[in-house]
Design goal:
It contains 17 helices and 18 strands. The protein is of the alpha/beta class and about 525 residues long. The chain has 3 domains: about 280 residues, Aldolase class I (TIM Barrel); about 30 residues, no CATH class; about 120 residues, Alpha-isopropylmalate synthase LeuA, regulatory domain (Double Stranded RNA Binding Domain, 2-Layer Sandwich), CATH 3.30.160.270. α2 links the parallel β3 and β4. α16 packs parallel to α17. The protein is globular, with a radius of gyration of 24 Å. The two termini are about 40 Å apart. Bound molecules: 3-methyl-2-oxobutanoic acid (KIV) and zinc ion. The site of 3-methyl-2-oxobutanoic acid (KIV) has 10 residues, from β6 and β7.
Length: about 525
C-alpha cells in the first residue's frame, strides 16, 4: 500500500483572510460540510481567538463535522490556545494549530522579540496546547526566510514538547521549488527527533509557485501533509490550490506514488460553493475548476478527442465533478422532483423550511426561465434570502427604464426592518440608477469596490450572477445575487452585501502580530 498524504484545507481560515472573503457562521458551516463530503483530512475552521464570530463558527463546525479533523489556528500564547481548545471541545477529532514567526525580520520588526524569547514562547505554547489535545501542529511563520540553525533548535524543542505536525510555511511566497524542497529535507535530516512528527508544507502563491513548492516539499522534502485552499483562495495571491495539488497527485500517481483520500467528484461542486459564497469568480482558464479547463476549441483538438479522448485529455471532466449543462427541471416540476435533484447535487439543506423557501424561489424562476439547469439550482441556494442575517433589507420590487438618448431611471421598493420604503433615482446606466435608488434609502456610507456579472449557464436565457464588493470602516464584504434579469440580480447582490455589513460579522487578520 502506498503512503497517504494528508490534505489539510485552510479555506475557512487562510482563505478567509483574502480581502473581501469574510464569511458568516452559516456560510462557513455550509463550506465545512462540503469539505467533509470532499473527504479532506483536516479542516482549519478558523482562528477562534480572533473574534466572537470566528469562535462561534469554529464551535459550530466542531459540533457538526464527524469525518474530518477540525482545527483552529492560535497564536503562540495561552489565551489564544485556551480559546481554540474551548471552541473545539465538541469535536470528534480536533487539532490545535499554533504558530509564531521565526525569521529575523519578523521577530525583530513585527514581534519585537529576541530569538530566545520566540524559542521559549514556541515551546511553552506547544506544551500548553498539549494539555487540551494530543494533536498539536506548530508552524514557524516565515519559515522559508528563517535562519536554518535557529529553525532546527526551535523545531527540535517543540517536537520534544509534543508537537505532532510541523508545518513549514512559505508565508510570503518567496520560495522556489528545488530550494524549498531541499530546505524541508535538510531540516528533517538535521533535527534528531524529526521522525516523531508529520511534516507539512504551507505555501503562498505570490510568485505563482505555491503548488510547485508544495509538491517539491513532498517529493524532495518528504512532507506528508499539504495545506491548501479551494480555488487557491488566501492572503494576497492566495495559497496552494487544493484542486490542482490533488489532481496532480492523482493524475501523476505513477510519479508521486502517494494516496490521497479526496473524493474528486466533489471538487467542482466545492469550488462553485466557495466561489458563490465568497463572490470570488474562478478564472475560466484555471486548471481543473475553470469553465474552460475541459473545453476543446480548436478543430484539431476536437477531432482528436472525438476519436480518442486521451489524445488531448489527461483527466476526465466527470471525475472532478463537471456535469454537462443538463436541463433537469422546468415549470411543471413538483417539490419532490426538486428535492430529489437538490439531494443528487449534494446541496446541504438544514430544514424543510429552507427547502420550502428554495422551492418557492425555484417556482418563481421557472415562471420566468423555461429551462432550469443544475447551475440554476445551485445558484438558488446562494441566493440572498438563505441566511438569517439577510432579513434586515429586502427587495420588494424594482421598476427600471432605459431608452437610447434618455438617462436611465429606476424606482426601488425595499423592506427595511419590516417597513416598506420606496425611492427613485437616475444614473449613467440601469444598474447605476438601481443601486443609487437603493442607496437613497439606506445611506450605507459604503464604498463599492467591485461589480461583476457572469452568465451562470450558456445562452441569452441564462441567469446573470452578480457579485458586488462593499467596504465600510475597514470591513469588506461580498454580495451575490442571481436572476435572469441582470438589473434585478444587481439589486439582489447589493442588498445581500448591505445585509452582511449590517450583521456583526467581524474579523481580524491572524497574522497581525502576537
Ligand atoms: O502563511 C502563514 O505563515 C500562515 C501560518 C499561520 C501557517 O498562514
Ligand atoms: Zn498562510
Amino acid at each position: 500500500m502506498a503512503e497517504k498524504l494528508i490534505i489539510f484545507d485552510t479555506t475557512l481560515r487562510d482563505g478567509e483572510q483574502s480581502p473581501g472573503a469574510s464569511m458568516t457562521k452559516d456560510e462557513k458551516l455550509r463550506i465545512a460540510r462540503q469539505l467533509e463530503k470532499l473527504r479532506v483530512d483536516v479542516i482549519e475552521a478558523g482562528f477562534a481567538a480572533s473574534s466572537n464570530g470566528d469562535f462561534e463558527a469554529v464551535k459550530a463546525i466542531a459540533a457538526t463535522i464527524r469525518d474530518s479533523t477540525v482545527c483552529s489556528l492560535s497564536r503562540a500564547n495561552d489565551r489564544d490556545i485556551a480559546r481554540a481548545a474551548e471552541a473545539l471541545s465538541g469535536a470528534k477529532s480536533s487539532r490545535i494549530h499554533t504558530f509564531i514567526a521565526t525569521s529575523a525580520l519578523h521577530m525583530e520588526k513585527k514581534l519585537r522579540m529576541t530569538p530566545e524569547q520566540v524559542h521559549e514562547q514556541a515551546r511553552l505554547a506547544v506544551r500548553f496546547a498539549r494539555k487540551f489535545t494530543d494533536n498539536v501542529e506548530f508552524s514557524p511563520e516565515d519559515g522559508s526566510r528563517s535562519d536554518i540553525d535557529f529553525l532546527c533548535r526551535v523545531i527540535e524543542d517543540v517536537i520534544k514538547e509534543g508537537a505532532t505536525t510541523i508545518n513549514f510555511a512559505d508565508t510570503v511566497g518567496y520560495a522556489v521549488p528545488e530550494m524549498f524542497g531541499q530546505l524541508v529535507r535538510t531540516l528533517r535530516e538535521r533535527i534528531p527527533n524529526s521522525d516523531k512528527a508529520v511534516w507539512s508544507v504551507h505555501c503562498h502563491n505570490d510568485l505563482g509557485m505555491a503548488v510547485a513548492n508544495s509538491l517539491a516539499g513532498v517529493t524532495i522534502g518528504g512532507a506528508r501533509q499539504i495545506e491548501c485552499t479551494i480555488n487557491g483562495l488566501g492572503e494576497r495571491a492566495g495559497n496552494t490550490s487544493l484542486e490542482e495539488v490533488v489532481m496532480a497527485l492523482k493524475t501523476r500517481r505513477d510519479f508521486f506514488g502517494l494516496d490521497v483520500g479526496i473524493d474528486t467528484a466533489q471538487i467542482v461542486p466545492t469550488s462553485k460553493l466557495v466561489s458563490g459564497i465568497t463572490g470570488f469568480a474562478v478564472q475560466p482558464n484555471k486548471a481543473v475548476v475553470g469553465a474552460n479547463a475541459f473545453a476543446h476549441a480548436s478543430g484539431i483538438h476536437q477531432d482528436g478527442v472525438l476519436k480518442q479522448r486521451d489524445t488531448y485529455e489527461i483527466m476526465r471532466a466527470e471525475d472532478v465533478g463537471w456535469s454537462a449543462n443538463k436541463i433537469v427541471l422546468g415549470k411543471l416540476s413538483g417539490r419532490n422532483a426538486f428535492k430529489q435533484r437538490v439531494q443528487e447535487l449534494g446541496i446541504p439543506v438544514d430544514s424543510e423550511t429552507e427547502l420550502n423557501a428554495a422551492f418557492a424561489r425555484f417556482k418563481d424562476l421557472a415562471d420566468r426561465k423555461s429551462d432550469i439547469f443544475d447551475e440554476d439550482i445551485q445558484a438558488l441556494f446562494s441566493d440572498e434570502s438563505v441566511t438569517p442575517e439577510s432579513e434586515h433589507f429586502k427587495l420588494v420590487s424594482l421598476a427600471q427604464s432605459s431608452e437610447t438618448g434618455e438617462r436611465p431611471h429606476a424606482e426601488v421598493t425595499l423592506s427595511i426592518a419590516g417597513r416598506e420604503s420606496r425611492k427613485a433615482a437616475s444614473g449613467n446606466g440601469p444598474v447605476d440608477a438601481t443601486l443609487k435608488a437603493i442607496e437613497a434609502q439606506v445611506d450605507s456610507g459604503s464604498e463599492l469596490l467591485l461589480y461583476s456579472v457572469n452568465a451562470i449557464t450558456t445562452g441569452t436565457e441564462s441567469q446573470g450572477e452578480v457579485t458586488v464588493r462593499l467596504s465600510r470602516a475597514g470591513r469588506i464584504v461580498n454580495g451575490v445575487g442571481a436572476d435572469p434579469d441582470i438589473i434585478v440580480a444587481s439589486a439582489k447582490a447589493y442588498i445581500n452585501a448591505l445585509n452582511k455589513l449590517q450583521s456583526n460579522l467581524e474579523r481580524v487578520n491572524p497574522q497581525s502580530g502576537v
